[in-house]
């Protein structure tokens, strides 16, 4: 009886990686391993060419990729410098993709609002537990700054973002602060044209003041309830005008 031999007709192509990608991997490893620290000046293009045995185009393309990802800053007339690698850097890399996703379907705005509410309720609970007197003082200053911008929608919104971002910082967790900053940026920057106000700015200020009072008293449950009410009401401001 003839024995069937398995046929291997699937082809896998092995492609050569670009030199710039290989240089990029080496440079990224130097940064993440600590061989190059935040604030350090990057080696010159000539030094990198000699080190890796590649031409200037490969080095420049790798450096530009590092710059685009936020790992280094390229300044004209100066040597590139290494940036701090933190949660903010990671989220900054995904901002453009996040905005693309949010604009791809109307339902994504609602999904983002739901995600923001879930995140901020946990955030304010931690802030109520950990906030210092300095945190509370800063929050009160931001409420008054927002009050000064009544009638100026853009500045009022910017102050609103600053207030919520400062609560995130009061949670004493840099990842929470970075995620909050990114999420608010996605919500307000992209959807600013969908945001309309209906004379409720005074209500917003009163709600912000109440949240600060509860944070100052370290009332976790009260702060969560106040933030929930605030987000439920303010969510209605993000609706497309008909």
UniProtKB/TrEMBL annotation:
Record has Transcription as a keyword: yes
UniProt cross-references to Pfam families, sorted A to Z: FCD, GntR
Any one GO molecular-function label of the UniProt entry: DNA binding
Record keywords: DNA-binding, Transcription, Transcription regulation
InterPro entries: GntR_C, TF_FadR/GntR_C, Tscrpt_reg_HTH_GntR, WH-like_DNA-bd_sf, WH_DNA-bd_sf
Zinc among keywords: no
Stored PANTHER family: TRANSCRIPTIONAL REGULATOR, GNTR FAMILY, UXU OPERON TRANSCRIPTIONAL REGULATOR
NCBIfam families noted in UniProt: PRK03837.1
Listed name of the protein: Transcriptional regulator NanR
Organism: Celeribacter marinus
